[in-house]
Amino acid sequence: MGRGTKRFVQVVERLNEASGILAQAGLFALFLIVCWEVLTRYLLRDPSVFSAEVSEYLMVLLTFASAGLIMKDGRHVRWRSWWLVSDGGGGPWQGSSPKGWCS
How far apart are the first and last CA of the chain? Predict the structure, then answer.
């Protein structure tokens, strides 16, 4: 790798780490806001006006702020389709039904 490429990789890694810290802070804030909403809605019978909207924005922040770090660390969800494993890759869209399914 060239010097410029190494520098770029270092910058991206720092951005990933910073976005991971931001996601952790957002998760903690989300926890506090949801606890506040439960307290005000069910115990005080006076729901807050901001918690639902802020929670939605924090969920979006968590999703996108943690995506790069998750992909870098290889912790993304991996899922294999049952019919691709069971019948060798045919799948229902190619005219063959998976084993165990009614024909």
Answer: 55
Cα–Cα dist 45/86, whole Å: 53
- 92: Cβ contacts below 8 Å, ≥ 6 apart: 83, 98, 101
Eight-class DSSP state of 93: G
Please tell me whether residue 76 adopts helix, strand or coil conformation: coil
Over residues 53-99, the pLDDT tens digits come to: 999 999 999 999 888 888 888 877 777 666 555 555 555 555 554 55
Give the Cβ contact number of residue 16 at 10 Å: 19
How does pLDDT run across 19-51, given as a tens digit for each residue?
989 999 999 999 999 999 999 999 999 999 899
CA angle 36, 42, 47 (to 5 degrees): 60
